[in-house]
Design a protein that fits this description.
Blueprint lengths: L7 H17 L4 H9 L3 H15 L4 E2 L6 E2 L1 H22 L7 E6 L1 H6 L1 H11 L4 E6 L2 H9 L5 E6 L7 E7 L1 E7 L12 H5 L3 E3 L5 H10 L6 E4 L3 H9 L4 E6 L10 E5 L8 E6 L7 H15 L8
Parallel strand pairs: 3-4, 3-5, 8-9, 8-10
Antiparallel strand pairs: 1-2, 5-12, 6-12, 7-10, 7-11
Helix pairs in contact: 1-2, 1-3, 1-4, 2-3, 6-11
Length: about 300
């Protein structure tokens, strides 16, 4: 095997970051990956050319928004991911199949995706204890930084800076209305129309409340009913106590008798769901299983349809 003209491990780490950015969003992938690994983009490009020359095959094709990994690039990404995970596990003195995985996340993740992920996770790791905590984004990030959580799913408008994170999908906003409400069949919904209704929402620490009310309060909106959890909010809506604004994962609608759901995401600022893990600890074993299932489940339509 020919010697590598540089630090192979660091170059693979940089390529792994670049490959992740290319697969998520091709435009400006080199610049985002360079920030991730704290390199100048020109240095990252030189390292990638060195790696491609050494491997003997192109690792990507195209440029800009047309940038794509080649078959060789996808293969190398898998090998790099496995190598980085093994090195990290050795550094922590961890076993490859730990007996406990602590996961924190939003209610949308825990209710909408976690049961399906847990089923395949526990089948693949029968000795594993899965500990799940419903936590807000700030607590999730703190838990990852402090070692109380191994993996998390959180909401944020931009990439969290103090943990490692991968953007999964858009955070949708749905308006829940009592069946028969005048807005249920309206051809177009406006912020002013929603603001004129009594609002059923969550506590002051809720990011969904902050995101929606920031856009509605100047129009006179106010929260009439404050509850914990989507089930309670939907029941209040069904009883005609107000209209609800709920965050849902794409293609994961809630079916509630007596309630009509309208997608109003475009009326509010953009937000995203992010998979997150502790800095310096790439997901391995069960955590990697969760990440891979999340990628698959948020990338394709649900078999249950749009409801």
């Amino acid at each position: 095997m020919k010697p590598y003209p540089g630090d192979l491990f660091e170059h693979l780490r940089a390529f792994h970051a670049l490959a992740a950015e290319v697969e998520r969003e091709t435009a400006h992938a080199f610049e985002r990956a360079a920030r991730e690994v704290r390199l100048d983009p020109s240095v990252l490009r030189r390292r990638m050319r060195t790696l491609a020359s050494w491997s003997g095959a192109p690792l990507w094709t195209g440029r800009g928004s047309g940038l794509r990994l080649t078959g060789a690039g996808r293969h190398l990404r898998g090998e790099a991911s496995a190598l980085l995970g093994r090195v990290e596990a050795l550094g922590r003195g961890a076993r490859p199949d730990p007996e406990r995985l602590s996961v924190g996340g939003t209610g949308a993740f825990i209710a909408g995706l976690l049961p399906e992920i847990a089923e395949s996770l526990l089948a693949a790791h029968p000795r594993l204890t899965l500990a799940v905590r419903r936590v807000g984004s700030e607590d999730c990030r703190a838990g990852l930084r402090e070692g109380r959580l191994d993996f998390g799913v959180l909401r944020a408008t931009t990439r969290p800076r103090d943990v490692r994170a991968e953007r999964l999908c858009a955070d949708r906003v749905w308006l829940a209305l009592p069946a028969g409400h005048p807005l249920a069949g309206a051809s177009q919904l406006r912020r002013s129309s929603i603001a004129a209704q009594p609002i059923v929402s969550f506590g002051p620490s809720s990011q969904t409340r902050a995101r929606t009310m920031a856009a509605l309060e100047s129009l006179g909106a106010n929260v009439r009913v404050e509850v914990e959890g989507k089930a309670a909010a939907l029941e209040c809506v069904r009883r005609g106590l107000g209209v609800g604004l709920l965050s849902l994962l794409p293609n994961r609608p809630i079916e509630a008798p007596g309630v009509v759901m309208r997608d109003v995401t475009s009326l509010f600022p953009d937000s995203w769901f992010w998979a997150a893990w502790p800095p310096g600890r790439p997901p391995t074993g069960p955590a990697l299983h969760v990440l891979e299932r999340l990628r698959a489940l948020t990338a394709r339509p649900s078999k249950r349809g749009a409801g």
